[in-house]
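Because showing beats explaining, we think one record worth quoting, sequence and backbone structure tokens together, and here it is:
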Amino acid sequence: MTAFDRSASPLVKPVRILALALAAGAMSLTAACAGGGKPEDTAYVARDVESLYFAAKDRLDRGQVKQAAALFDEVERQHPYSPWARRAQLMSAFSYYVAKDYGQAISAAQRFLSIHPGNKDAPYASYLIALSYYEQISDVERDQQTTALAKTALTDVVRRYPESDYAADAQLKLDLVNDHLAGKEMTIGRFYEKTGKWLAATMRFRKVVDEYQTTSHTAEALYRLTETYLALGLPEEAKKSAAVLGANYPGDEWYEKAYELMEKKAPGFTS
């Protein structure tokens, strides 16, 4: 596994649905307001809140997401106490996300949560933070700090909002993140094993078995543990790893290799 494949878990409908819901909800805010002329689509010009919001929405609809985000930010800056400000915060975060400016998306969503922690849209804000970290995950050869942040954020969505529209997708992405983190441990473990650092390798493979046992890397990790324990002169520990491998993956190629290895290095291990 050399790169993290996000194609298996595409952006789910709730993101688009909420963006539409936010826009539709904004229409209700105008029900008691008089209409006005179309404003100039330029940020940092003082204007009424409705015109400013819909200037931002128009930019978003036209795919000018960075300009849209800046205008949504202006709604909050110019009209911080308006009901539009709360909605604009989420629309700003969404616009930054679409623009792939994930740092700004996270900041905007976190600001929303800090001001409106109990709001009905809090699950979405948390989900958007998790998505923004998730989209930045790099391949297993690089530092995994962002991957760890994605795991924390996705776990938070599942734990805090289990009944929300976003929990199921967050769990799916969390499974992929765990597989990615396990892959990183395996890459490091294989390197240590190749260079004869048996104890260091064992610790990495042990971590995969203990912390990421539901991932696709567990069978190989158990085989590698069998190898490294034998290299360390610990045939009984190797036997335990091979036995767990056989019990959980009896027809797997890694068990077949472990069986052959044990028969060669520690004959009679199955007795």
Remarks:
- Residues 196-271 form a domain with the Serine Threonine Protein Phosphatase 5, Tetratricopeptide repeat fold (CATH 1.25.40.10).
- The longest helix spans residues 167-194.
